[in-house]
Amino acid sequence: MEGLNFLSQKDIEGSYRKRVIDPTIERMLRTFGGVLITGPKWCGKSWTGVHHSESSISIQNEDTAEYARLNPERTLEGESPRLIDEWQEVPKLWDYARGVIDSSVLKGRFIFTGSSIPSDRSTMHSGTGRFVRLHMRTMSLFESGNSNGEVSLNDLFGGKEYESVESSMDVLTAMRHICRGGWPAGINLSDDDARKIPGAYLASCLEADYVRIDGKRRSPSTMRSLMVSLARNCSTLVKKSVMAKDISKGGKPVKEETVETYLDALRKTFVLDEQRPWGPEIRTRARVRGPVKYHFTDPSLAAAILKLTPERLLMDPSFGGFLFESLCYRDLSVYTSSMGGEVFHYKDNTIEVDSVIELEDGRWAGIEVKQGTHDFDEAAKNLLRLKGKVVSRPSFLAILTASGKTAYTREDGIHVIPLDCLGP
Asked: 101: closest CA among 91, 111, 88?
């Protein structure tokens, strides 16, 4: 068994980069018998799991997987918390771990990490009450060291004022961050080398992941076409009928049901993020529309599938704006999840607001995303219209931008925050 052990805290000591999710993991290990960390491949789940564990095993090759299938009880043996990395390769470990948790009063027995969701039939029990589920994303700009984080999202919700904070971001810098992505392996690489990571990620997915996820065979070329469609329509309310047309070939139409099966594979591998619509109690009878906005788990995947560079994005400000909105959505989601909240979008028959953050206690904030300063006044009007429609008052309203020398507050009370000043 010794030879099957993975990494330990000592192995990564001095090289682990702190993640926003760390305090949440620590708190949940004190509260529950097990913690399940899900998220896309290569986002850093394994190292984060090792950082919080006392022993570990990684089930990423057939030899280890076969051992775990034959010896599930021994696989779970080790100092607690025990990390089982990529547990979905041997789904029955879930039920064995549940049994261990049930037979003990101790908390924090296991950390499971997974980059895909196994079939519902693979496990016998949901794990409710034993495991708590946490979702991990790729690195935000704050986590990768590209945001000073001096404008804290938590402080904004608390009504705390901030001093004038300087920004070093411009639109080209934002496009660079989009194309590099938030992959931990790319932090110390040049832009050119870092951009190879999302390309390799996509190749890995198309070659194997979508066949292995649930045993269903899917066409790699159709999946690639769907990814291209999603990339082109990133941060929009694109309909499945549009995606069906995009992936139709040779005059043969594709059904929306087929699109849904491919989207489901992207969900199960945490490649696709769906930004749900916000439905508050509103003063007007304006109809709140229900479609989701689609994002890749990291905007670099959209850039990679379309073979875009920062310079090419700079030449298409409109499309660059959509990908910048996706970058902002990623960072807001990372920061908000540590506060027990979610990032929605809002659209009715009169206005549309890019992001609405709602916390568990009902507090909310409206956020518009603008690359340049020339759109700030229109963005502010949208936010104030939303404020006028909702019964409860917002904790704050803000404009996230890629332009501007400082973070500041406008005379109408709306914050203008360069993304490289925002933090948890």
From this structure: 111
Q: Is the dihedral of CA 225, 228, 232, 236 positive or negative?
A: positive
Is pLDDT at 123 greater than 60 in this prediction? no
Rounded CA-CA distance 300/184 in Å is 13
Distances (CA, A) of 112 to 45, 85, 97, 318, 415: 10, 6, 10, 41, 39
Whole-model pTM?
A: 0.94
Helix (H) or strand (E) holding 196: helix 196-204
C-alpha distance from residue 287 to each of 380, 381, 391, 420 (Å) = 21, 19, 16, 35
Please compute the mean of the pLDDT values over residues 45-50 and round it to a whole number: 96
Note the helical H segments in 109-170.
153-157
Per-residue pLDDT tens over the stretch 145-193: 999 999 999 999 999 989 889 999 999 999 999 999 999 999 999 999 9
Q: Would the pLDDT of 407 be above 60?
A: yes
Distance CA 19, CA 50 (A): 13
pLDDT at 126: 55
- Copy the structure tokens of residue 327: 């970058």
The per-residue DSSP string of 55-121 comes to EEEE--SHHHHHHHHH-HHHHT-SSSSEEEETGGGSTHHHHHHHHHHHT---S--EEEEESSPPPGG
Please tell me the total number of residues recorded for the chain in this structure: 424
Which residues, 6 or more positions from 32, have their beta carbon under 8 angstroms from its beta carbon? 107, 108, 130, 131, 132
